[in-house]
Design brief:
Number of strands: 2
Shape: globular
Strand order of the largest sheet: 1-2
Number of helices: 22
Length: about 500
């Protein structure tokens, strides 16, 4: 029978499970030493150069949310050495996973083998070290997501005012790092509103969150207004929508039937001409890469920006990029409204295929992947003496095997959640377990819908869900197995399995 814990959580972790903590340290340290033997420096690729540019220039806005660049600036204040970036990111991610692990042990109490498998997956896992070694927001976003998710579990277990503020602050940090977190507040809002807590406490915590988000949106919009002449929270969103629409549109063959208004007609003619040229090739260049239209110079959107600023050598690339956001958003809305069924079929269908088999963007080849134009800024930032950094490639830290792990994690969680419902496990489990399963299932479903509808698909974006899917997938499968083999008396007979 599942009973409420009687020991404080800190005593549960640091006294009752201190051997597990010690074992985690003993397992982690050799992995870090081994990894740093092969990859002594943090990995700086093309995306990382933008973050460093924003940090070095002390900018208030840039291509992506400015939160990660501010973290780089803070770390840079302590030391220019790149080891601090790796160390900070790795410790934050590893501790978040251990926090989730011990929380699940404390609140849900999985069986011995499930606990052991989860512990090993959260500690003896090369991807934790590999993703932490990139100068990218991924590892910090993963860590803060897991912290937020775990705090939400604690609030479900025992609502407290302090936990509302903790969730709100974590959400703000996530949103300031990556706009992917735009759907996260929905879960916090639902959990808080339907909790058994004084309504004044709820309003105070949620109101504080609204002030944080409103202030960030106002500041960002005002900065863009100074740059491009009109308020815009995220010109990047216009590019993303246009990219999504063109991914759909390039599958069509008759472009002559579409007639946007006069302001969009030059862009439409340029895009359709480029797509017609692409269709003549044996293989579309965007097939393996979902960000082709936004970032690759050969894509029609980037080319059109180049035509618009053909004779302009003064305007910065960032300002050019931002100035196109509103026009591209309007063009995307036109294409999507004109072809809604095709958008579902060709864009969402393509995203579904990418979701099952996501592109692997990061590998050893990107270790020295930044370009010469950004090399000087990066060298000064980290104190490098050369563009070329020594490393020893090792397939042990490859991301390729995680394609299978992510796919299996989704399947395990899907079948486990469905089995949890059909085996009626919710009837015999306490409310905290049912709510935790409901939270994880809701997050899994909304995350997939968000990815299919609007978000770019990259393998590294799915690592957060991978850890949550494995953890909760193992938990629900254990409950399903126990319920399936539980003895049930029917009259004078004893049968196995919940057939009632």
């Amino acid at each position: 029978m599942h009973t409420s814990p009687t020991i404080l959580f800190r005593s549960f972790v640091f006294r009752q499970h201190r051997r597990s903590l010690l074992l985690a340290v003993l397992l982690v340290l050799p992995q870090v030493i081994l990894y740093k033997f092969y990859y002594p420096h943090t990995i700086v690729n093309y995306d990382a150069s933008h973050y460093i540019d924003a940090a070095a220039g002390k900018l208030g806005i840039y291509f992506w949310p400015i939160g990660y660049s501010m973290i780089l600036r803070l770390l840079h204040w302590f030391t220019h050495a790149d080891w601090l970036v790796f160390g900070f990111q790795y410790v934050l991610l590893q501790t978040s996973l251990l926090y989730l692990y011990f929380t699940l042990l404390y609140l849900i109490r999985p069986g011995r083998w499930v606990s052991r498998l989860m512990f090993l997956f959260f500690t003896v896992n090369p991807i934790i070290i590999s993703i932490s070694n990139y100068v990218l927001s991924d590892s910090i976003f993963m860590a803060l997501t897991i912290w937020w998710f775990t705090v939400t579990l604690w609030y479900i277990y025992r609502p407290r005012v302090l936990l509302i503020y903790a969730m709100v602050v974590l959400l703000f940090g996530l949103f300031a790092i990556r706009y992917y977190a735009i759907f996260y507040p929905v879960f916090t809002l639902v959990v808080v509103v339907f909790s058994k807590l004084d309504w004044r406490a709820k309003l105070g915590g949620l109101g504080f969150g609204c002030l944080l988000f409103a202030g960030f949106i106002w500041y960002t919009s005002s900065q863009y207004k100074k740059l491009i002449g009109y308020a815009s929270f995220s010109p990047f969103w216009g590019w993303l929508l246009a990219e999504n629409a063109v991914i759909m549109y390039r599958k069509l063959h008759n472009f002559s039937e579409d007639r946007p208004d006069s302001s969009l007609m030059p862009l439409h003619r340029f895009v359709t001409a480029q797509l017609q040229e692409m269709q003549k090739k044996p293989k579309m260049p965007d097939s393996p890469l979902c960000t082709y239209y936004m970032w690759w110079e050969r894509g029609p959107l980037r080319r059109y920006m180049g035509v618009r600023y053909k004779n302009d050598s003064v305007t910065s690339p960032f300002k050019k990029f931002c100035s196109m956001g509103r026009e591209y958003k309007a063009y995307a809305n036109f294409l999507i409204r004109r072809h809604p069924i095709e958008f579902i079929r060709y864009y969402m269908g393509q995203n579904a295929a990418w979701f099952v088999n996501p592109p692997i963007e990061l590998e050893d080849a990107m270790y020295n992947g930044y370009y010469s134009s950004e090399g000087e800024v990066i060298r000064k930032w980290f104190g490098y003496k050369s563009d070329v950094l020594a490393y020893r490639p090792n397939r042990l830290f490859s991301m390729q095997p995680y394609l299978i792990v992510m796919f299996m994690g989704n399947l395990v969680f899907l079948f486990g959640s469905v089995g949890y419902y059909f085996c009626r496990c919710y009837k015999v489990q306490p409310s905290v377990v049912n709510r935790a399963v409901l939270l994880s299932a809701g997050f899994w479903l909304v995350n997939i819908l968000f990815v299919l509808v609007s978000a770019p698909v990259m393998m590294r974006y799915g690592f957060t869900s991978m850890f949550l899917n494995v953890a909760f997938g193992l938990v629900v499968l254990e409950y399903v197995r126990k319920e399936a083999v539980a003895p049930v008396r029917v009259g004078s007979r004893v049968v196995y399995g919940n057939s009632m």
